[in-house]
C-alpha cells in the first residue's frame, strides 16, 4: 500500500497532536452539554476514536453512514443514507465528526437531516478540510488540517474501500486511480 502513496501529508504523530488539540477544545466547549457525537462511517471512525478519547465530558456516541463517492475519486452528487442513527436527537447538542469535508454535499445533507429531527445545536469537527473542493457553502467548527485539492487516502479515508488502515494521510498516486 505504501508504494501507492505519492507523499505523506499528515503523519500518525501529526494526527495524534491534532486529535489532542481538538479534544481539549471540545472538552471546554461541551462541558455541561452532554453532546451526542455522531461519527460518519466509515471514514471518520479512526479520527472519532482518537478525538473522543481526548474529550473529558459526558457524551453519547452514535454512527451514521452516508455515501456520495460510490467507489470513485469524486463525489457523485447523490447522497445515500446507508445506516441511520439509533439515538433520539431532538433537543440535543450534536457534534458531527467527519474524516474530510470536500464538496460539502454530504455535510449539508447531514446537517439538514439533523435539523429536520430538531437537534438543538449542530457543530462539525473534521480531520481534513478541502476548501478548494467546496461546491456547497458549509463550514466546520473544528478542523484538524486544511488539505490541498488532491485525492487523499489513509487514516480512514479510502479508495474503493482500500487504504483506510494506513496510519497517516497521504496523496494517492494518480496512476492508481486513473485509466492506464
Automatic annotation (TrEMBL):
InterPro entries: HGPRT, Hxn_phspho_trans, PRTase-like, PRTase_dom. One of its GO terms (cellular component) is cytosol. CDD domains: PRTases_typeI (cd06223). It is found in: Cytoplasm. Its main location: cytoplasm. Its EC number is 2.4.2.8. Residues 15-160 form the Phosphoribosyltransferase domain. It catalyses: GMP + diphosphate = guanine + 5-phospho-alpha-D-ribose 1-diphosphate; IMP + diphosphate = hypoxanthine + 5-phospho-alpha-D-ribose 1-diphosphate. GO terms for biological process: GMP salvage; guanine salvage; hypoxanthine metabolic process; IMP salvage; purine ribonucleoside salvage. It holds the Pfam family Pribosyltran. GO terms for molecular function: guanine phosphoribosyltransferase activity; hypoxanthine phosphoribosyltransferase activity; magnesium ion binding; nucleotide binding. Pathway: Purine metabolism; IMP biosynthesis via salvage pathway; IMP from hypoxanthine: step 1/1; Purine metabolism; GMP biosynthesis via salvage pathway; GMP from guanine: step 1/1. It comes from the Bacteria. Keywords: Cytoplasm, Glycosyltransferase, Magnesium, Metal-binding, Nucleotide-binding, Purine salvage, Transferase. NCBIfam families: HGPRTase (TIGR01203). Purine salvage pathway enzyme that catalyzes the transfer of the ribosyl-5-phosphate group from 5-phospho-alpha-D-ribose 1-diphosphate (PRPP) to the N9 position of the 6-oxopurines hypoxanthine and guanine to form the corresponding ribonucleotides IMP (inosine 5'-monophosphate) and GMP (guanosine 5'-monophosphate), with the release of PPi. This is Hypoxanthine phosphoribosyltransferase. It comes from Paucilactobacillus hokkaidonensis JCM 18461.
